[in-house]
Design brief:
Layout lengths: L11 E3 L3 H22 L6 H23 L1 E4 L3 E5 L4 E5 L3 E7 L5 E6 L4 E5 L5 H11 L6
Antiparallel strand pairs: 1-2, 2-3, 3-4, 5-6, 6-7
Amino acid sequence: MDGRNSEAAGRQVFRPRRVLAALMAAAGLLWVMVLVYLLSFEGVPLKTFLAVIFFVVFFGVSVMYYARTRIVVDAGGITYRGMVRTKRFSFKEIRKVDVLPGPVTVYAIRDTGGGLVHFTSFFTHHQRLAALLVERAGLRPV
């Protein structure tokens, strides 16, 4: 349902590309296997174990981020669900959508209360999402 209309409520859901979560999960599994392999040896330095555990945790957190993050656009506004917080904006509250181009385009949504959420070109249909936000919030391109 990424970026497509939901029949139930006329809402659109935008998520990071699923391949990113799959790649992070594969990398995490690789590092878990490295950790299990290291446990079979004696005399492995503590720093080596800590480095491998760091990568296991890093890729685990990455999988959680890509699995949980989404932006839902409905008739009343948008709901941003990140890894640790969920924030709701009405279209009237959105005062600016900044676009920072580059190898990975970053979009920053600013509200009237000074709040900020962002998404990147790693989201499916990110350009359509940005255009939809600008249109429904009544903003004009600068």
